[in-house]
Write a structure and sequence with these properties.
By secondary structure, the protein is of the alpha+beta class. It is 17% helix and 29% strand. The strands form six sheets. It has a six-stranded antiparallel β-sheet with strand order 18-23-19-20-21-22. A four-stranded antiparallel β-sheet has the order 3-4-5-6. A hairpin with a 4-residue loop joins β21 and β22.
């Protein structure tokens, strides 16, 4: 009689010969309850000692493991292979506490130290601790994350850990806890360098923010908007008119701040609701040029960073050319260049509207040197009865309001200047 008979097993489950080996006690009970011969086949080993327990292996890629703390549990297939790779019962997971159980389009076993989940699409992977708890709170494999696609993996920064899933990731560190990251916010964070970027680890899950989504990190926040966003031209122009010669207290003040000013104008028009957030990390990525520098960092930001050099005009212009999820750019760029023969600023394009931006390359050498905002649009008739479009602009650095910008300026300084109109799409998504 097996020594396991004493562990709560009735005489009705006396040891018996199955194939070439005896199967008895609690292992025999689990053999019968988990499907018997159809699931296990014959044993291929005798009952054997494990660390603080017993086990027996069967021919149909199955085993039964027993410990006094967990009872006898079936484990098989790829889940058993993963458990083996993690060190069997002496590894991080310890003994199984359930037999293999059906999940939605997959299977799992729970262990003393975590779980292993398998699906045909993802194979078998372990999930443990607070990452497993966070996954549970997202409804396991039926939630937005789906099945794990990696094992829990250690990170060098701050002794953190993560699992990737079909629909995102969960990252944990001792200082931040475990938080899920997915979708466009995860993509932005990944592009910046994951936890090694200035964003650091996530400190919250994704939450609703100004009609879109936001997630907080150690070094700032990342925003994403999933719905239609409209550029509020009236609000943008009103801001430009009210602040052409001043800088609100919520923004830092710099001597050369033309890009700072037009960025604030865009923020007033709610263009900041598109894209990424308030960490200085994204400042190095032209696609997210404004994160932590300009209009995304107002008085509600952890630190109100603002632009301080004309060179950032190029980054702003590049950002406005990015394509959004529906294939439309945030803005359309139209080159306007004078010629020595004209010695004038050429005709402005008809799609120009108040709230659009003008960028200037003084020497036509590919360097953007200055930016201003269009605050007025006028049709003028020249002596030869040609109707032409003019505008007034507001700017900072050399603070000016309603500066007249027209075809017949006759100013020789425009001869080599290349000017770009950036026409903001009122609804880019």
């Amino acid at each position: 009689m097996s020594g396991l008979l004493a562990i709560g097993v009735t005489p009705a489950h006396a040891d018996r010969q199955i194939g070439g080996y005896i199967v008895g006690g609690a292992i025999e009970v689990e053999y019968d309850n988990a499907g018997g011969y159809n699931v296990f086949g014959n044993p291929t080993t005798p009952e054997s000692n494990a660390v603080n327990g017993k086990f027996q292996v069967f021919e149909r890629s199955n085993s039964i493991y027993w410990s006094n703390a967990t009872g006898a549990q079936q484990i098989g297939g790829r889940i058993r292979d993963k458990w083996r790779d993690l060190g069997w019962e002496t590894g991080v997971l310890g003994y199984p506490t359930t037999r293999e159980t059906s999940a939605v389009n997959g299977k799992f076993n729970v262990f003393q130290g975590g779980s292993i989940y398998w699906s045909s699409a993802t194979d078998a992977h372990n999930v443990q601790g607070l990452i497993r708890d966070a996954w549970k709170n997202k409804n396991w494999e039926t939630g937005p994350l789906g099945f794990p696609t990696t094992d829990e993996t250690a990170l060098s920064k701050n002794n953190g850990k993560y699992n990737h899933f079909q629909g995102g990731s969960i990252y944990w560190s001792p200082n931040t806890g475990a938080h899920a990251v997915w979708g466009a916010i995860r993509d932005t964070w990944a592009q910046a360098g994951w936890e090694n970027s200035s964003y650091g680890y996530p400190t919250s899950d994704e939450y609703d923010y100004q009609g879109g989504k936001r997630q907080d990190f150690e070094g700032g926040s990342i925003n994403y908007n999933t719905g239609p966003i409209y550029y509020d031209r009236a609000a943008a122009v009103a801001y430009a008119e009210a602040n052409w010669n001043r800088n609100p207290a919520s923004y830092r003040t710099y001597s050369n701040d033309c890009t700072n000013f037009v960025s604030q104008v865009l923020r007033a028009g709610k263009l900041q609701d598109r894209g990424s957030g308030t960490s200085t990390a994204a400042a190095t990525n032209p696609a997210n040029w404004y994160a932590g520098i300009d209009f995304s960092a107002g008085s509600d930001a952890p630190t109100p960073y603002n632009s301080n050099t004309w060179s950032l005009s190029f980054m702003l212009k590049s950002f406005l050319q990015q394509t959004t999820s529906n294939g439309r750019p945030l803005a359309e760029e139209i080159s306007i260049k004078g010629t020595p023969a004209q010695k004038t600023v050429p005709i402005l394009p008809p799609q120009m509207q108040p709230g659009d931006l003008l960028f200037y390359d003084w020497e036509n050498d590919g360097t953007i040197d200055h930016a201003s905002v269009v605050v007025g649009k006028y049709n003028t008739v020249t002596p030869d009865t040609t109707t032409q479009i003019s505008s007034t602009i507001n700017m900072h650095s050399n603070n000016r309001q309603h500066a007249f910008w027209s075809l017949k300026s006759g100013n020789p300084t425009w001869v080599n200047t290349k000017v770009f109109l950036v026409h903001i799409n009122d609804s880019a998504r």
